[in-house]
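Collaborator request log, item 7. Partner lab (contact: R.S.) asked for a structural prediction of Lipase/acylhydrolase, gdsl family, putative to inform their binding assays.
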Amino acid sequence: MYYCFGDSITEGIPGVSYVKYLGKEFLNYGKGGDTTLGLYNRLKNFLNSQTVENIIIEIGTNDILLPFLYNYSPEWQKTVKKIIASGRIPSKNIEEFEKNYKNLLELLVGKNVLIINIPCIGENLNNELNKKVDEYNKIIHKLCKDYSFKLVDFNSWQKSQLKTNSNKYFISKKPFKMVLDSIFVRSSKISNIVSKKRNLVTTIDGVHLNDNSARKLAELIKEKISSK
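Returned to partner:
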């Protein structure tokens, strides 16, 4: 049995979860808005109560995204404050992110672990968020080598699909619109329709995966699991 821990990209709300394409032996423990520190605390409690061997980790997006959304609009500022108050606290800077991510991996020493790097944030690869994603992913790649954990480089696959896309569509400044996406954009078919309507390629809103991407990520995970 594999336990898949992560944020909304794993949970699949909004958008589509890659976990649904992995099979019944993969359990979804994604939590929307979760951060590296939030997952550390959640996973620590989980491992204290259960013995598990196979774990998939997808985390880090909200360490970058939440601080951005805090300054994005007054409505998002209120929402982000509630998320932080619940314990899903983003890293203050890249140094703290490295510390938090390392602490997370320390919990998993001795287990069969597969790490998914941080996906693109926005489909314009030249934006400031994606530049930050690249820097944070360098840390994840280094830590995976240090701990000998397998890495799924989903971010690079996304970039291969987005080379010619300069689409500016991104998460609405009104959180309520994401709530609507969470309600209505959850099926495979609808996710791809919404993605196409917004002129997006791999996501439904610049962050959350459409069905095509969810399938591809599941494929990459299966390939990595079967590799030696």
